[in-house]
Design a protein that fits this description.
- There is one protein chain.
- The chain has about 210 residues and is α/β, with parallel strands linked by helices.
- The protein has one domain: 2-Layer Sandwich (BirA Bifunctional Protein, domain 2).
- Strands 1, 2, 6, 7, 8, 9, 10 and 11 form an eight-stranded mixed sheet that branches. Strands 4-3-5 form a three-stranded mixed sheet, with no helix packed on it.
- Helix 2 runs antiparallel to helix 4.
């Protein structure tokens, strides 16, 4: 199955990205386009998923965009890698839980290549890092499924400004924090998107078996 790979150098407007994903979704439904993986960054923006609550916005001055992905409120901005996809589960096993596991394993396996041990949590969606019993989120996952086509994706904090998370209760979780890869291990993460793409495509084969 052919998956188109796109990588955007300049920051992409969130609403534009969302409309492009929706367009691709409709084209796949109508057999007009290939599946998609799209790597990009956004300018600073806060987005609220379908299960977010108003009280999770701590700073009422910030602008929040409501979106149709799953999950709660989160922040996007420079230094954060966005891994968007439009993947047709009609061509694979129609198993949403397994698909989420594929996303989780992709991030876990990729970070293990940098000798960073992170984990998924059934109670709190996302990828977490435990340092001295302080648990912080390093990657957020938000997926929507329409006619068994999964889209949106995940964000991975590389060297983003963590102060922006002070304006919200990230993903609605108040007893854990947020971190980034540079804070965990200050090395060069150039090329990490290639590793993520490779691992994601390899892991997708589990659903094709």
């Amino acid at each position: 199955m052919k998956i188109e790979i796109k990588k955007s150098i300049k920051p992409i407007d969130y609403n534009f990205a969302l409309s492009e994903l929706e367009k691709r979704l409709n084209n796949i439904i109508n057999s007009k386009s290939n599946e998609l993986i799209w790597i990009l960054e956004h300018n600073e923006i806060y987005t609220a998923g379908t299960s977010s609550k108003n009280e999770e916005i701590l700073n009422k001055d910030i602008k929040v965009i409501n979106t149709n992905r799953g999950g709660k409120i989160t922040y996007h901005g420079p230094g954060q890698l966005m891994f968007y996809f439009v993947i047709d589960l009609n061509k694979r096993k129609k198993d949403i839980r397994k698909f989420i596991s594929i996303i989780e394993n992709t991030i876990i396996e990729t970070l293990s290549e940098y000798e960073i041990n992170v984990f998924a949590d059934k109670e709190n969606v996302g990828i977490w890092f435990n340092q001295n019993n302080e648990i912080n989120k390093v990657a957020a996952i938000g997926v929507r499924v329409s006619k068994w086509i999964a889209y949106h994706g995940f964000s991975l904090n590389i060297n983003c400004d963590l102060k922006n998370y002070n304006n919200i209760i990230p993903c609605g979780i108040s007893d854990r924090g947020v971190t980034n890869l540079v804070r965990i291990k200050d090395i060069n993460y150039k090329g990490i998107e290639e590793k993520l793409i490779k691992n994601f495509i390899t892991n997708l084969e589990i659903l094709s078996a």
